[in-house]
Amino acid sequence: MYYPFGGEIAVTGSSFANNYKFTGKERDSESGLDNFGARYNASSLGRFMTPDSSPDRIAMRDPQSWNLYSYVRNRPTRSVEVGGKWDTDIHARIVMYALQDYVSAGELKQLVAAQYAIDKYNAPEDQAMHSMSNGKAHQSATEASAEIGQFINDMMAEARANLGAGGSETPLSLLFEGYGIHTVEDSTSPMHTSPSGLPLPWNGSGFLGLRGLAHWSGENQPDADWAGIGQAIRLTMAFHLILGAGCEQGEACLTNENFEREVAKNISEYVSSFYASRSAKCNGTGEMCGPSPAVQEDMARQCALGNPAACDH
Fold first, then answer.
1. Which residues, 6+ apart, have CB-to-CB distance to 91 below 8 Å?
2. Chain-centre distance of CA 109, in angstroms?
3. Burial zone of 194 (CB within 10 Å; 0-12 exposed, 13-18 middle, 19+ buried)
4. Spatial distance between the Cα atoms of 245 and 164, rounded to a whole number of angstroms
5. What pLDDT, in 10s, does the model give residues 187-227?
6. Cα separation of 3 and 210, whole Å?
7. Across the beta sheet with 34-35, what order do the strands follow?
8. Pick from 122, 149, 132: which is nearest to 194 by CA?
9. Domain ranges (residues) in the chain
10. pLDDT under 70: residue ranges of the chain
11. Residue 72 contacts by C-beta under 8 Å, 6 or more apart in sequence?
12. Which residues pair with residue 20 across a beta bridge?
């Protein structure tokens, strides 16, 4: 058992050695540090031992991001750092609320991990996997759309080809499924596509990473675009349904017949969880929660469910 930043809680009665500790990362027995791939984390201190090298790590509107040694911007009860880079909160939450009822806990963890893995590929030429065009190559929106569609189709084909007996998920099918749903989710982001749905160009992070900062700030909170969040949940569930993975024992089964009902349920749960945490935060700190939180939540839910009139409030 662990404290939020990874400090280990001693549990009596355990008789076996386990080198894989906080968030499943391997702990070095000599240094006591956890290997997060890109860098090592000192769970006893709640800090990484080297600064984050990502140029998109800092967001001027988030002071917690200015500390390049911090673990998940000092929000360990909200986020999980997978690779030692900045966290991909929104994707992880979309996947969780979209698919947690239909896959096992272990499979869900692998799908979430794939979100962090694919976000490491952020060179301009790799932007099809993020539903954007290569701005440095002056790629047109039409060319980018074709490349994006091909990438999604390829991920679907690879995920389907790697399903096990009876359509059971395997580590490889989950990896490709995770990549595919990441791309379809990015297609709903206001920072990746235009209001008409065309992919926007990505030219890199720009001078001092300022372009990356603006990009991240525009995606950091789901209430920046509830319509996009609702669509992302729908597309994630649709990808899983079309994949045709077999129903997990003990889990619900997503079908053509119950798809719309399940989409509405999962979107509503996502919105409710967001406003519940916001209310708790405001009440605990004394900060203002904003006017009529209940009305805001209802409008957000209706917007995410596809009512455009509610998105204007």
1. 112, 115, 119, 182, 185
2. 11
3. exposed
4. 9
5. 988 778 888 889 988 765 443 333 443 344 434 455 568 89
6. 34
7. 26-27, 34-35, 40-42, 47-48
8. 132
9. 1-86, 89-312
10. 1-25, 36-38, 52-67, 71-88, 122, 203-224, 277-292, 313
11. 78, 79, 80, 81, 87
12. 26
Residue type, 130: H
Rounded to 5°, angle at Cα 92 from 89 and 94: 105
Look up tokens 């994949």; give the residue: 243
User: What does R_g of the chain's alpha carbons equal in angstroms?
Assistant: 20
| Structure tokens that stand for 20 in this block | 């894989």
Here the tokens at position 224 are 């920046």
Please say whether the beta carbons of 254 and 295 come within 8 A. Answer: no
Rounded Cα gap, residues 88 and 208, in angstroms: 21
Q: How far is 16 from 79, CA to CA, in rounded Å?
A: 29
Q: Round to whole Å and give the CA distance between 173 and 185.
A: 18
Give how far the C-alpha of residue 299 lies from the chain's centroid of Cα atoms, to the nearest Å: 23
Q: What pLDDT sits at residue 224?
A: 61
Distant-in-sequence, close-in-space partners of 293: CB < 8 Å, separation ≥ 6: 275, 278, 279
